[in-house]
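Input (structure):
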């Protein structure tokens, strides 16, 4: 995986184009470790994409062909690799943007679902393909897909493993937009620039509240929202935002 930083943006690129950027357990571990270390003090955004014509074809089937010694061994392996990616992406306080430059299959699709924002080239193809190899959706697939596309749509995608295009991915809200392939870089750059101009730590709190409250009762969720809002109300970002509003200028968030 290629890791680049530029102007406060952490760019992660899957770099096995000959294997359509299939993910090994080592790549999953590196992805998780890199995202875990990202903070709003250092980065305004994280962009994940693929090298060549694919975003990611999912888990590397050659490595999956070796059956673990036991169910416990399999559990530990997936928890420490692809499962760790889920926790890292959901808990990361820096907004994550998926730049889906090509096919997003299996775990590749799950990573798109885990991203906070996603933009796809209009010629990209998607599939929740786990059923084709006798697996259930992992890398958060059973968690995030139903929340994003709805339960019945998620079941159809998971049960059938059907392939669908970027326009349908946008209709399902799996991605925010499907754009012409030659405009994808510019569309993502525009989005990242907008994030960079915003209060990154506050955006991280929004993400934290939304994710944490997915499994809470209404009263618990509202109490947690109030707790984070109290923190936001006492932040420098809020002070600057109010001052900018009163002075009729654009805010200058650090």
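Output (sequence):
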């Amino acid at each position: 995986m290629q890791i680049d930083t530029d102007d406060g943006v952490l760019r992660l690129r899957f770099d096995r184009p000959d294997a359509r950027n299939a993910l090994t357990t080592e790549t999953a571990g590196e992805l998780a470790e890199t995202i875990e270390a990202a903070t709003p003090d250092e980065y305004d955004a994280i962009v994940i994409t693929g090298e060549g014509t694919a975003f990611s074809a999912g888990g590397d089937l050659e490595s999956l062909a070796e059956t673990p010694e036991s169910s416990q061994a399999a559990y530990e392996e997936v928890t420490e690799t692809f499962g760790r990616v889920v926790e890292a992406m959901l808990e990361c306080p820096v907004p994550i943007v998926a730049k889906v430059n090509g096919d997003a299959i299996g775990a590749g699709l799950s990573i798109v679902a885990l991203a906070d924002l996603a933009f796809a080239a209009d010629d990209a193809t998607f599939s929740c393909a786990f059923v084709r190899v006798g697996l259930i959706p992992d890398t958060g697939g059973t968690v995030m897909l139903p929340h994003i596309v709805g339960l019945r749509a998620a079941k159809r995608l998971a049960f059938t493993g059907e392939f669908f295009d970027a326009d349908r991915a946008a209709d399902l809200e799996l991605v925010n937009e499907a754009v012409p392939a030659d405009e994808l870089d510019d569309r993502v750059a525009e989005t990242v620039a907008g994030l960079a101009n915003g209060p990154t730590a506050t955006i991280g709190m929004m993400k934290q509240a939304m994710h944490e409250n997915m499994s809470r009762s209404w009263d618990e969720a509202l109490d947690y929202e109030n707790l984070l809002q109290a923190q936001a109300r006492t932040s420098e970002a809020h002070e600057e935002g109010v001052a900018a509003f009163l002075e009729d200028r654009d805010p200058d968030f650090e």
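Notes: The mean pLDDT is 94. The first strand starts at residue 2 and ends at 6.
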